[in-house]
Design brief:
about 375 residues, alpha+beta, Replication Protein E1, Chain: A, 5-stranded antiparallel beta sheet, 4-stranded antiparallel beta sheet, 12 helices, about 35% helix, about 20% strand
């Protein structure tokens, strides 16, 4: 795997103190930045390996494992995807994106945890409303929701991506497909305009029901929000389960910016690549003051222990037995797999074997010593002849 020339950790190391003085980040934000800065450095400890054939010594440092870190998502993503493969159904899947008007951004930033929960609930109630309606499905549907808060230019843009199977389970325990519409709507899950209106109504009602939130929104703003059209974006269905898995791999464990998008760090400025979706996905380069770059990044740090991937309806844990019964009727046999180590995932999914010696290509590394950030090294007894 090729290593990025520039890293987010380097930006934090060089300009984190200036950012802290200028913008006064919260405890949670600063804690995340410190974790990312320390990732895979001696500060978090590590281990020393020796090759069983040529004796080459390798020193490896521990990862921070923070979900906002660009370097710590690969194995997490692959392990999560492998677990989701067990829940796939022999049906089409749709990709639906729910967004909120920009005027609500300040409220999202001010009351992020409550607002994110409201957003999840509004999306869930909207999809439940359409699934239970006999005109569209008339069954219990389900979906996976993933919260994203960023656009390509790192600006704040809270929205939820959903993967929705094209059907549901009836009260008799049978699988029922979504009814196809006419013309344009035949390609999509539910009528997009109707989805938008119902989503808007449910979301604003939930806001008004929360006194802490409703007191922060001016009544004139609420009226405008009811009058304006909201955006719900629906894509055509995936071709099959493989496309669903590919999608999950791209979206579930994304962070606000990956290291390979950073093109330069110099003179107090950071440049990075981004795609302008409004202009045909054109790739462009943006340059920001380093402190402004970190400010934008911190907008996307989630509240402590907040769950950003959620499963609803027939895809929720409590309905796992229902799902297994439908899979059985579809001829799908689910083999429960044991949880794999990160080394096994790296070898099978990421196409590199961290255990093979990079020097001779024959021997394997074994750990001869390890340490954490605040303890002396642990020694390991080697086998004879190594």
């Amino acid at each position: 795997m090729s290593r990025s020339k520039y890293e987010l950790a380097e930006i934090i190391s060089l300009y984190g103190t200036d950012f802290k003085q200028q913008f006064e980040p919260t405890f949670q934000e600063w804690k995340v930045l410190e974790s990312i800065k320390s990732c895979r450095t001696s500060q978090l400890g590590g281990h020393i390996d020796s090759c069983t054939t040529c004796g080459t010594i390798r020193i490896s440092y521990n990862s921070c494992r923070d979900r906002h870190c660009p370097k710590c998502q690969s194995t997490k993503r692959e392990r999560w995807i492998e677990a989701r493969e067990e829940d796939l159904l022999n049906t089409s899947y749709f990709h639906v994106v729910f967004t909120v008007p920009e005027v609500l951004n300040s409220l999202f930033l001010f009351r992020s945890k409550k607002m994110y929960n409201v957003l999840f609930e509004a999306v869930n109630k909207t999809l439940e409303t359409f699934a239970s309606d006999p005109k569209h499905l008339g069954a219990q549907g389900g979906h996976i929701s993933v919260l994203h808060t960023w656009g390509q230019n790192l600006n704040y843009h809270p929205h939820i991506h959903c993967i929705v199977p094209a059907g549901g389970i009836t009260q008799n325990g049978k699988w029922k497909m979504v009814k196809k519409g006419k013309g344009y709507q035949s390609k999509y899950l539910y009528p997009v305009k109707a989805l938008s209106k119902v989503f808007r109504a449910i979301f604003l009602r939930l806001i008004q029901d929360e006194q802490e939130l409703s007191s922060q929104v001016d009544k004139s703003v609420l009226r405008k929000l009811y009058q304006n059209e909201w955006v719900v974006y629906a894509k055509q269905p995936f071709y099959g389960p493989k496309q669903v898995i590919d999608y999950l791999g791209r979206y579930t464990h994304k962070v606000a910016i990956s290291n390979h998008r950073i093109t330069s760090i110099e003179d107090g400025k950071v440049s990075f690549l981004w795609r302008d979706y409004r202009k045909g996905y054109q790739q462009k380069e943006m340059t920001l003051e380093a402190t402004e770059f970190l400010r934008r990044f911190c907008q996307h740090i989630l509240p402590y222990r907040f769950t950003k991937i959620r499963h609803y309806g027939i895809l929720s844990n409590r309905n796992k037995n229902k799902l297994r019964e439908i899979q059985f009727l579809m001829g799908i046999i689910v083999d429960k797999k044991e949880k794999k180590s990160w080394q096994e995932i790296s070898k099978e999914k990421l196409y590199f074997d961290p255990g093979v010696c990079s020097h001779c290509g024959i021997g394997h590394f074994i750990t001869i010593s390890s340490w954490n950030g605040r303890a002396p090294p642990k020694r390991f007894v080697q086998n004879k002849g190594i």
